[in-house]
Amino acid sequence: xxxxxxxxxxxxxxxxxxxxxxxxxxxxxxxxxxxxxxxxxxxxxxxxxxxxxxxxxxxxxxxxxxxxxxxxxxxxxxxxxxxxxxxxxxxxxxxxxxxxxxxxxxxxxxxxxxxxxxxxxxxxxxxxxxxxxxxxxxxxxxxxxxxxxxxxxxxxxxxxxxxxxxxxxxxxxxxxxxxxxxxxxxxxxxxxxxxxxxxxxxxxxxxxxxxxxxxxxxxxxxxxxxxxxxxxxxxxxxxxxxxxxxxxxxxxxxxxxxxxxxxxxxxxxxxxxxxxxxxxxxxxxxxxxxxxxxxxxxxxxxxxxxxxxxxxxxxxxxxxxxxxxxxxxxxxxxxxxxxxxxxxxxxxxxxxxxxxxxxxxxxxxxxxxxxxxxxxxxxxx
Length: 381
Prior knowledge:
The chain is α/β, with parallel strands linked by helices. It has helices at 15-22, 48-56, 70-73, 75-84, 107-123, 141-153, 179-188, 207-210, 217-238, 240-243, 258-275, 280-290, 306-313, 341-354, 358-375; strands spanning 6-11, 29-31, 40-42, 66-67, 89-93, 129-134, 157-162, 191-194, 249-251, 298-301, 318-319. β10, α13 (306-313) and β11 (318-319) form a beta-alpha-beta unit.
């Protein structure tokens, strides 16, 4: 029997979420257009001029937003994708923008509905599907903590997915007010999957990007990695991992700027030692994060260059993730029911990173599924 493959980074929009976005009149929202066979998810302020033009002229091109294929919304499509790529188990999570846009009055009930829906999907396919819950971070703290308790009570929940903005007001993940959330997650044994969404300001990419000419390319390809790096560095600088030693964090997209983790944090630690006059606290944190292992239990999903991540944190801190349904097959005659190069490329990357020795095969098995089975408590379920 081949070793198990566990996909820790795979997204879905449940029907309840699709209905919510379709009913909205402000971003984020879903719209359909006569010239497109698929509905489109519109997220970015820079897409509003295109939305206005396409609303006024049904045949206007280009269209705003991201096309939502059945791979975003259909559980049978997700299962077919898993079967096509020999994926044993997937941990489903809501894709951005999660629930960050909701008012405090409705966020808790919608989080309950979304997480219950995910749980039902997983229960229908025991052993194949688990999920990471969405939290109502715009709601008052007691409601967020209640949502964590509810998520932890669902038998197929193994963590939560978080953006980088933090609580209502967007003060970030180094905001002292969010510490009770991290403490509750640690106490419940739920892993926090840190995922980018907000990127960088449109002005960074220039007026043409701000006008929507470049679509999602610049915010995703450049903004996302920087966003993740900045967010987790702020957590490190603020002492979040010292304050909540039981907090476990999974970083999306290979941990973003991996070279920064190796070189940049040495610089950060040196500056901390200087600023705090005496070096003990800064140097202590530096040793715990840059000494060859992240003893704060930070994991990287394997959706970018594997070898660099292995060299940085070791094979025991890396998990396989496809980021499905993003990066589908492209080009003339592309078949989204066929092999996705975004997955096949990651599999090749793992094989190339570890080689064909017995030790290498053991490392590859750990990355492809063994680590996730242990960390997410999937054994025997």
